[in-house]
Write a structure and sequence with these properties.
By secondary structure, the protein is an alpha+beta fold. The chain has one domain (37-161, 190-283). It has helices spanning 2-31, 48-56, 67-75, 99-122, 165-178, 180-184, 266-283; strands spanning 35-36, 86-89, 92-97, 153-159, 161-163, 190-192, 196-203, 206-208, 212-222, 225-236, 247-253, 260-264. The strands form three sheets. Strands 1-9-10-4-3-2 form a six-stranded antiparallel sheet. Helix 3 crosses helix 4 (99-122). The longest helix is centred in the N-terminal third of the chain and has 30 residues, at 2-31. The radius of gyration is 21 Å and the shape is flat. 32% of the residues are buried.
Length: 284
């Protein structure tokens, strides 16, 4: 009996993780096609500063890294380590996206689709589209920047998701009546933890002005999510990530006067900087 209960608990945990990953995957597919704050429904928070910067810098043009050489470079790389591009800041996941990340994800996705087509061919099946990947915590909505190899660093502030109180109550009730397995079949309900208002990047005690800034709205009413929120997408010069000074990020939630301050660890700063330096050295 004890073994059966343990197996049931493991099954419950697996179902919970599966529901959560699928829901976040859905959410991020919406993020990838999000609108700017001026075009989307107001989900709370002023965001005046970010909106003004976005309007002043509509579709800015930056120096582009050579596409063919960049894609050849990433095709020879070992697997990226997503944790070296992430910083946690309260209720937001801060992500640093470089042209190397974008090109790598493009090549990775092309290879996955090619393998799927080859598998279909060998088994004599029609060449149907490859199924979408479940969200794994890597580079939310990177498709938004596909084919954009601008020589800049994109900093994203993504609001995290939480399971609602009603879900917990139903899960507990199902557990009492049916045990751990019963909990797994309770519909999952997710909400965003916060609305993004604005953010700042500081280097050595000095504020770095963004090259562009967006406060992007997302409205999701499908599957396990029925909510709306904003996230941030700011672009910064590569020089801000050069060695020699500490970096920190300040993020404001909508309706909050004090920001959440998060230090950018040295291995994250070094990863971002080395993406450009290593590519430049290979190119030479």
């Amino acid at each position: 009996m004890e073994s059966l209960n343990n197996n049931s608990a493991d099954m419950s945990a697996t179902w919970h993780r599966g529901f959560l990953l699928a829901a976040i995957c859905l959410c991020m597919s919406v993020i990838g096609t999000g609108q700017t704050a001026g075009q989307a429904v107001d989900a709370g928070g002023s965001g005046d500063q970010a909106a003004e910067i976005s309007e002043q810098n509509a579709e800015p043009k930056f120096e582009q890294l050579p596409a063919e050489e960049l894609r050849e470079y990433v095709s020879q790389m070992k697997k990226l380590k997503p944790r070296t591009y992430h910083v946690e800041a309260g209720k937001f996941d801060m992500q640093f996206i470089t042209p190397v990340v974008i090109a790598y994800k493009e090549v990775e996705e092309e290879r996955r689709k090619a393998k799927w087509s080859e598998r279909n061919r060998k088994k004599g099946r029609p060449d149907t589209p490859a199924p979408p990947l479940l969200y794994t915590g890597e580079f939310y909505g990177w498709q938004k920047y596909a084919k954009d190899y601008s020589k800049v660093v994109t900093l994203q502030a993504i609001p995290e998701l939480k399971r609602t109180g009603s879900w917990w109550a139903a899960s507990i009730a199902a557990g009492v009546l049916l045990g751990p397995v019963g909990q797994a079949f309770v519909p999952l309900s997710l909400k965003f933890k916060a609305n993004f208002d604005r953010m700042e990047l500081w280097r050595g005690g000095k504020k770095i002005e963004p090259l562009s800034a967006e406060r992007i709205a997302q409205e999701v009413s499908q599957g396990s999510i029925d909510d709306a929120a904003y996230f941030g997408s700011y672009r910064y010069p590569v020089s801000a990530f050069a060695p020699g000074a500490r970096l920190e990020v300040k993020v404001w939630r909508a309706g909050k006067s004090k920001p959440k301050v998060a230090k950018v660890r040295e291995f994250v700063r070094n990863q971002v900087w080395s993406d450009f330096e290593n590519f430049s050295s290979v190119k030479r």
